[in-house]
Amino acid sequence: MTVNATLLEITDRIIDRSGPSRSAYLDRMRAAEGKGPSRAHLSCSGQAHAYAAAGEDQETLATGTGGNLGIVTAYNDMLSAHQPFETYPDVLRKAARSVGGTAQVAGGVPAMCDGVTQGEAGMELSLFSRDVIAMAAGVALSHNTFDAAVFLGVCDKIVPGLVIGAQVFGHLPAVFLPAGPMTSGLANDDKAMVRQKFAAGECGRDELMKAEMAAYHGPGTCTFYGTANTNQMLMEFMGLHLPGSSFVTPNTGMREALTAEGAKRALSLSALGNNYTPVCDILDEKAFVNGMVGLMATGGSTNLLIHLVAMARAGGIILTPEDFSEVSDLVPLLARVYPNGLADVNHFHAAGGLGYLIGELLGGGLLHPDTKTVAGEGLENYTQEPFLQDGELTWRPGTKESLNTKIVSPLTEPFQKTGGLKRLSGSLGTGVIKVSAVKPEFHVIEAPARVFHTQEDAKAAFKAGELTDDVIVVVRFQGPKANGMPELHSLTPMLAILQGRGQKVALVTDGRMSGASGKVPAAIHVCPEAVDGGPIAQVRDGDMLRVDAVAGTLENLAPDAADRPLATADLSGGHAGTGRELFVPFRTAVGAADDGACVFGW
Description:
The chain is α/β, with parallel strands linked by helices. The protein has helices at about 5-35, 45-50, 60-65, 90-100, 115, 125-140, 160-170, 190-200, 205-215, 225-235, 255-270, 280, 285-300, 305-315, 320-330, 345-350, 355-365, 455-465, 480-485, 490-500, 585-590, and strands spanning about 70-75, 100-110, 150, 175, 370-375, 375, 385-390, 390-395, 420-425, 430-435, 445-450, 470-475, 505-510, 520-525, 545-550, 555. It comes from Sulfitobacter noctilucicola.
């Protein structure tokens, strides 16, 4: 397959830029590889401690030659997407035994739900939880008793954190095992309409609660295409899932078979056998470029513009906002999944899903075909889909035609000629906008600013009837250093109502929006952030701002804006309570959103 020349240029530039840091990382991984199987180097006392509670696996661990699989789990039963992981360890242990190995839960990592914390103080811990998860995964694997690892995680910060942790132990093979999406409930568009009615005072909380419970009704990920499901897409495009496994629903025979196969596959890739494939060799520059292509082709979550940068840096690979922008200009939009359409991820999967899209992009030269994956050499493996035949798991070629062209389109007839994300730059700094769900008539918004320092103040102004004209709502002091860069998704119903009234409306913020944000143009991740002296701190009420997703510009048109003093805000009230006092070192050490908003000094 011939790879597009521009994609090759982007990749070569990333390889060249990352040379020193990537080489240093790989040197560390090769040194770890050279030490051989980990538990063989432990003292007898150390091994006895590690095997004391292993039951029937004790003897195999102490005297056998089979691999030991470390399970890093994000299980809790408060997250619907993670509740199915409760039963995975037993499935994984049985699968490991069937191939002469063993499996142990190495450790757990926290997993919070952004849907629960939207608009609440806990959301200010959300982004930082990614780096906590990475550290917790590192602690879990630090006992050095494992020959391979599987990672159980799905949602927003969990998968990026686990990928960072996996790369720190990059000399080990790693397979990521999802739980799959919940079955379809109340349509996402209908749910959004009820939310808007409630925000406008047109229905009561009882009707809102009924709609929400009908939408979120069982185990599995939320079915819209937000950050959680974007994570699952990336794990296939980057070769860490088994092919076709991302969107298989929980508690089915296929889901259990894929889970068991994940354990066997991880052990088969260990240094004890002849097919050694450590995660450091899978997650190279080409794999990250493939991830960016998948992000643009599917109109995925803006959160991954932060997470992919952090994930890449953990492996010594340096991505920049310009890389994402150039990939977005090159790759067309091939998926329409809510909020970028009416379909949910179950409909998307049934229409051909990731296997079909990967095949289309490979055929058009828009993916690197020669990457290593947990399924073997080459991304072509991910055009296949799993089947159960006489109770045995097998893979067959997937569809080569879209089964619903309103949901997934062929490369020759894309929904948009460019990807779903656009970089912005100008006198207000740099930022990003998700345009895949924004109508073309809203791609350029020029309107007076109304400035707020909290989302609560913005909502209060709306409820007081103050936002009746065209407006660009500016919510600043929401960056990673200020308060952990919370998502501001609770503003979405308010902004959608203003837009529905015929007003020109947009959002500008140094914070984040939900991965499912869509119809209202939002310039987010603005850098430098206000607390760092960014120009967003110089905006005043009434300044004419311009958000231009066509030209890729973000401007304050007020002629004297650059000469003004910087606004300040008293942030102390938001630095304690709901665990926020524990994260003072994070707010102090965190880097800019452009650099992955990471606390690690890569």
